[in-house]
């Protein structure tokens, strides 16, 4: 793995060639008992600073090793190790609004990996994945428009978020605009609108799949997973731990009727249904 410090020039690409995106296309939607797709080796998931948060077993929020302003999008091919620097937007990327269409701090090519990065405020539109990608130990201190957007056009696209965390998301943390499957594992989120949303009104719609495993959720929050039932989306959840929500106000999985016209999507209900929202009551615990 490349443990070197990222280049000082934020516009530079890493030199490693991107790996090939997985070619297998799922023939069926993930079931409630589906196993989580294999990740990069466990050794790549190094906790932020090695210290678990009290009583949770999850890594505590890391202390930045350095600070780097980003005035133009950092394009990543291959692997980019941020060495736990804090990256924040400046200049054209220095806005803090919630408008759609902002540029990201990082744009990952198909097959790229981003690891050991802290995104500070302002974070612009966070991270964009143009195809399959892996985010390892990435932390969003104050989510801008979205923490990360997944835009691959192939049903075989695979996106993995391993470790890390996000907080202060007025709306979405992970926005799934493209096709394929997103896996979120060993992640923590707090003070958020939606952890995941399959785009409800994109001009081009796809069938999308989500797998959530071992995620720590701290209230306040609104929805963990929002999927479009009419396009065959699925959300498979297990090991979800919710803290500070004794009245169970956070919706675990909400189904929508999506569209490609730009209209506001219609909610079709929430809770496990064996088709779109795939989990059991025992897969979600409250602390």
Automatic annotation (TrEMBL):
Pfam assignment, any one = Pectate_lyase
SUPFAM superfamilies, per database record? Pectin lyase-like (SSF51126)
- Catalytic activity from the UniProt record: Eliminative cleavage of (1->4)-alpha-D-galacturonan to give oligosaccharides with 4-deoxy-alpha-D-galact-4-enuronosyl groups at their non-reducing ends
Basic and acidic residues bias located where?
278-287
The biased composition feature labelled Low complexity covers 1-48
Does the record carry Transferase as a key word? no
Which Gene3D superfamilies does this chain map to? Single-stranded right-handed beta-helix, Pectin lyase-like
Q: What is its EC number?
A: 4.2.2.2
Q: Which GO terms describe its molecular function?
A: pectate lyase activity
Alphabetically ordered keywords of this record? Calcium, Lyase, Secreted, Signal
Into which family does the record put it? Answer: Belongs to the polysaccharide lyase 3 family.
Per its record, how is this protein called by name?
Pectate lyase
Species of provenance: Streptomyces fimbriatus
Q: What is the lineage of its organism?
A: Bacteria, Bacillati, Actinomycetota, Actinomycetes, Kitasatosporales
